[in-house]
Amino acid sequence: MALTKKQKQQIIQDFQLFDGDTGSPEVQVALLTASIQELTKHLKKHKRDDHSRKGLLKQVAKRRRLLRFLLKRSEERYRKLIKKLGLSK
Fold first, then answer.
1. How far is Cα 27 from Cα 70, in angstroms, rounded to an integer?
2. φ/ψ (deg, to 5) at 49
3. What distance, in Å, lies between the first and last C-alpha atoms of the chain?
């Protein structure tokens, strides 16, 4: 259910702005998106897992806040990230 270390490293490499960047909004949103996709798959199989559902909702809310922050800071970076991740906005 959780992302492996290799998956996280690959996502960080794909979305980092500079070498060693792990905290930019782009990286955080990409990691949250991957985690949300994994949890969504899990919840399709285990429909009554309410504890995981609560965690999923928290992650979605955090991603929404980060995207709102990025939109306020730089609309160009926001649009590029949305397109790269395939999110609908």
1. 12
2. -85, 85
3. 26
Ranges of residues in the chain whose predicted pLDDT is under 50: none
Separation of alpha carbons 75 and 48, rounded Å: 38
- What is the separation of C-alpha 80 from the centre of its chain, rounded to a whole number of angstroms? 14
Cβ atoms of residues 29 and 85 within 8 Å: yes
- pTM (predicted TM-score): 0.95
CA-wise closest residue to 33 among 67, 5, 6, 9: 67
Find, among 76, 11, 68, the residue nearest to 37 by Cα.
Answer: 11
Cα separation, 8 vs 24, in Å, equals: 14
